[in-house]
Hints:
With about 160 residues, the protein is α+β, with helices and mostly antiparallel strands. It has a six-stranded antiparallel beta sheet with strand order 3-2-1-6-5-4, with helices on both faces. The chain contains five helices and six strands, in the order H-H-E-E-E-H-E-H-E-E-H. It starts with a helix and ends with a helix. It is globular and about 45 Å long. Helix content is about 40%, strand content about 20%.
Amino acid sequence: MAEQxxxxxxxxxxxxxxxxxxxxxxxxxxxxRDKEAVCDVNVYRLMSHGLDRVNRASREARISFxxxxxxxxxxxxxxxxxxxxxxxxxxxxPDVRSKRWQRxxxxxxKNREYRSFISVPVFNEAHKVIGMLSINSNKKNGLTDLHRSxxxxxxxxxxxxxxx
Length: 164
């Protein structure tokens, strides 16, 4: 995958960007060694209104995260996600059902198909945030530092191809 990204003509846009993001998400999912775990990986690009999902293949994924001033629980969660990404923060949540993590990350207290997640910002060469990669697992504490490291490496590859 790294060779493909490095040799691709830049910047990758349109359908080619969608194909690259989809392939990248599939490679990241392959990292999960637990055969009982269900994981999902998504690639987002930063837009003026928030984060839009780029990859096609996804289970019940959010379409986007809006940067809004609305005060509904969902809107607050989406805005806080965008703010963390813009600040360049890596987010690790071992249990989305935990009240502690819901408060800390401003998560909407709803039922989700996943229990844990990691999200990492994607930086361009000028160290400006251009997007986010996220992985989630249906298991509490289902993701490790290895997942985080892999996702951070994948974000660097994606940024190199996006070359925005």
